[in-house]
């Protein structure tokens, strides 16, 4: 493993706070303790993250733009070899194979690589987080001894062959079959039609010599559902496909072009019986199937549950990428000037424009919330995967939380990197300033490792199940009554927080209205009530058809699908809010608490503003208070403006992580040079007179 | 020019309408007349568009993915040479130089090239729409004779050197100077500091041998503001910079990598006096400055007004790109199946999922609105640029409309192409399916030819000016009273449309509420009132400081900047709505009127939903009606589902425009093959039994 290097290098925090028209007397202002917040953001794995950040500074791991497709792919493979030689990938694996058995730390380290090159990150993720992890989690000792060492060392580059052209998120329906032949004690892997080709597989186009292949296990005429098999696919010497195996290159993609994605198909390929990764299901030499999990459904979800680490790590990676994008755009915005300011002869810094603040600071607040929420998720993951608290309930909760947070943070990254790129204008479009490249590479994060909409629907189904559990044994009429009361806000108003939802009786002034919304208990209640009410509304609709035909039930579910996904999103937002609130509650430094409290408020009020129509139509926030929300956000922006550089400084990026010329301080130097030029010209008495001024005389 | 080829080729309209659970008895359903709507979408230049679409089918003009930066640039140059040899670029230019003097038609043809390759489009746009157009519009006969023929023929590839590293949208503040030297009768072009380097200039990195350079014109010690100069920059033989000229390559970008963007700087470069493009301002041999436009401000805006054609053409191009993205994603969605459907043994087509409809159909409606709005804009452009109705007022109206529509349509394209790519999952991320490439290429459209936020602020200033004009001579108190009445909805409610805004008195049923919102006059009033009220609110805020110091006034303006930009967006949406409504009013075919009416409703109600919080807090729509908006949108989605393929068919794309394997029908064939496989297996009696079924027994 990499040693912990002392962090003596210069930090990329612009030294001087530029003049701001928004900041008043800076002396009496509260001040963020940047080092303290930086420690908070490092979460539960501070040392691992610092080590990984040191690794990410190595220029051998940095993305280079303008390479051809082949060059990018070869570079990523070379980067992985360097990584493997450094033992970076060992952390998750068993101690007897040189690892540390540190599941959570492994993800923390992985996440930090996003600043170096997402292609390296994902190509490594395919090798160690999917291919080798499948052997580890779905295989048993024989597979660990036989296949895992070469997978870990990269001697065998591998593909993770789950997705098919015709089946992405619906893994249970893959068409590839693995039929057991007791005569030869082999499985026969077969692709029965074009839609069952494995597709979008990292490493499959060129580098993989083996694959973990998901296929329907058929023995003695019974289909036992999807299992995973270890299948050699290429001759390591020649790079040619082995007999019966074929494939195609997925070619150029929207990003991540260092990863060689491709397709695979199998024509009755025979593998030994023992190549079935048999932790959760096995076939005896005579073809008898056995499993420790009796229910085929639960067995399937248990096997797929090992995939949750991908989702967890994407939540963390995209949060760091969002932070990097904001670091670049906000640094530039604090130096770049455009159009005359209120100060004569001086152009205004971009960050002093209200619109510019509006575009970037709420996204900064969201990113902060994600840092805290991600740490909660990472701990939940480690609890289960370390075996420390590996219960069914914990696994289900982990999967639900990951399925809610991964969509929110991956979409947020695309949105934030795009806004950051636009906020930097033409320079934001240049590859050298990194925003476009990061966005392109992260684009696929919203549909891989579980399509975001499908994941949110999973969360929604869990919310509906939990909701229904409350009513075990209740009649349909009881249920309808409860839902009606929930929707009418009875539960909400009886929760002791009447002071917010007084639609018609709201006679208090605007200021008072905002005060009520600033209370954390009220905020929690508003966010929680929105989830509960949306679910109750959907539950009531589904309840109406609970005795109807399956097609009618399916139609009713579909008619509420959009709302269900919105409810899941609301639930994810609530988890982020709770994590941020808990983190804030733990702060004792007064200045930090104040400034971070404003960030928390900005995050929360941005949620209220986004969902204001819902709160208004449901009578949870009055029109009068609703009107004040936007004004309060604008006041928060003014307050946060002078603390912006501190807030991005706490991300702890160093120049080797940033690498964007516009965020290097060069823009500040250019602006100073321009102003000095005009000042000298005026002083020289040789400045041309403006035509307008000649007319005034 | 290219001949009008008869359109005998096969159309890319999937032949069969797939089974849809949403469509009921198809026989009695209204039907869109696809050919009629296709003609409507072609707008005022049907023949020109058909010709240009034929050109765009030529594979020599098609983008190829995976090329290196150099290869992409050389290919784009070669494409332009082919184009030039075909005379494609002549349309806008004077008849005496072989052109057609068809300003509007030229843009229509240009717009259609987006389906071939945006790099080709924009590199050509730089050459003919900016470099040559500057010579045409800012120069006089001498320049037309001397420089224009080679610019048109591409003998002289040129750059349009306006933007500087330190000044993008604020062109008036560029640092480059052109100082007149009467002794030699030359201008001296100079770059005084790094921030004044010209930057992001297409053709500047490699191919341009001349540039139209914008610089502060200084003569006799007076700065007459920004003018444009013709400056040779490279030796055509060697490709080396001429003495005194230097530059840098902008390198790899987020997209449009066929365009070689670069930087230029000038060290006291001397050019003849006559290289000033002197249509709006001239310098006599003795250094005396003259201009037909007395006001320096108006002169500047007149010169920059010639740039409006870029904005107009981007509005059209991005609308076509959005249509193409939707064509690809909706075709795929109508064939691709995922997860079990209500029909046993059959998986459900993506387009039958409510969420999928929600993601794509409102964007389809928006795209339709943009087609109609763009045609209004293109006609306004042609009225001015043909000279037919070239008045100050028309120019200003044209510029305001372009400044409002270009931001909306360019953002819409990025949003739509992204949603389309996500809706296609992993296959959407492959370059071969075109969505990621189109999005990457179009990314810069939102910040070039006028940054979207800056353009919308221009619109907002115009709206404020118009608002203030109503009150010429009024006191501050009068103004405040009027604004208060406007905000309170007095103007709105007295407009005879009381039936919508009855916040507290709304006792009618939900259905009735939606009925009221379906009336076009009501829709118009709601959209118009929102603009008027937002502007009145801002006007009232600014009125409070009208006697304050300039810094206080600037601070007040800044405190309302975000709202002002939102008001401008609302104004743009109103223009789109009006254009769509007018187009719909002209339809006589009953089926078309019905289906297109639903598209219009979907567009309008999506606006109401988006701005619902505003309408609720301002009492324009009651909470009860507000709650019904989303439900009505969902009903519209169900209604439109069976007409989706007709609606995208009316875009008139042919296979050579689409070129995405997933929209070729291949997915439908794959799905049919998979279903046939399982049907045959079942029929054979050899299908494995599902483990679940063995347990039930």
Automatic annotation (TrEMBL), chains A, B:
Domain Acyl-CoA oxidase/dehydrogenase middle per the UniProt entry, residue ranges: 159-269
Annotated Low complexity bias: 1-20
Region of interest: Disordered: 1-30
Gene3D superfamilies referenced in this protein's UniProt entry, alphabetically: Acyl-CoA dehydrogenase/oxidase, N-terminal domain, Butyryl-CoA Dehydrogenase, subunit A, domain 2, Butyryl-CoA Dehydrogenase, subunit A, domain 3
Domain Acyl-CoA dehydrogenase/oxidase N-terminal per the UniProt entry, residue ranges: 49-153
Pfam families: ACOX, ACOX_C_alpha1, Acyl-CoA_dh_M, Acyl-CoA_dh_N
Residues covered by the Acyl-CoA oxidase C-alpha1 domain: 305-464
Cofactor(s) required, per the database record: FAD
Alphabetically ordered keywords of this record: FAD, Flavoprotein, Oxidoreductase
Residue span(s) of domain Acyl-CoA oxidase C-terminal: 521-663
Family annotation (SUPFAM superfamilies): Acyl-CoA dehydrogenase C-terminal domain-like (SSF47203), Acyl-CoA dehydrogenase NM domain-like (SSF56645)
Family assignment from sequence similarity: Belongs to the acyl-CoA oxidase family.
Protein name: Acyl-CoA dehydrogenase
